[in-house]
């Protein structure tokens, strides 16, 4: 009787797997997301040198999303939406991060690189904000002077 029961259990498990395949659950065998970028640093957003903030950058179905996990309380992540990527295969475009004081105000900013483009998220108080055109020009001028 135990042999029959174990065969029935195996047949039942196989039926479940076949049903899930039929529904498309196991059809995608490649990773669904592009690689996730990450950086750890002290941004001044609820962190310390011993407990730096972790920022992740993910391409979630073509939407770039930044998730900030404050070092002293990682249970309260903050989200910043980045650009939406257009085109075939863009759901697999990697996003990379770097922490740098881009505008030389004494606070680390986030530099987000996507397909050769760089977005600057300025550290303003307790959050990151996308730099406007004037702020981007200021950062470019700072970099030009630094290279001289």
Short description:
With 148 residues, the protein is α+β, with helices and mostly antiparallel strands.
Tags for this model:
148 residues, 8 strands
In words, what does this structure look like?
The chain is an alpha+beta fold and 148 residues long. The protein has 2 domains: 1-30; 37-147. 24% of the residues lie in helices and 34% in strands. The protein is built from 2 helices and 8 strands, in the order H-E-E-E-E-E-E-E-E-H. It has a 4-stranded antiparallel beta sheet, with no helix packed on it. Strand 3 and strand 4 form a beta hairpin. It starts with a helix and ends with a helix. Mean pLDDT is 83; it is low at 5-9 and 12-29.
The profile of the biggest β sheet is: 4 strands, antiparallel
As laid out across the biggest beta sheet, the strand order is: 1-2-3-4
Estimated share of beta-strand residues: 25-35%
**Share in helix:** 10-25%
